Amino acid sequence: MKTSSKVLMVLGIITVIAGMLIFRDLNYVNAVDAHAWSININGYKSFPWLTFTGGVLFVVGLIFYISSIKHKGRRFE
Question: Is residue 36 scored above 70 in pLDDT?
């Protein structure tokens, strides 16, 4: 579990960096506050999906890592 969490965190960091390099000059609007005509300004590049996915991978890996830590002296393990 710890190795998979470390792999997820590393993949998340790599994906965030790649997303920041790919989506440099991104013009996106907030889909909640926007009108229907302004959501897809750049087509599929209207939202930095790669950066968001990397952040999700990193957080999931961090949660897996924290949940796999063994605490000695606890009653339930």
Answer: no
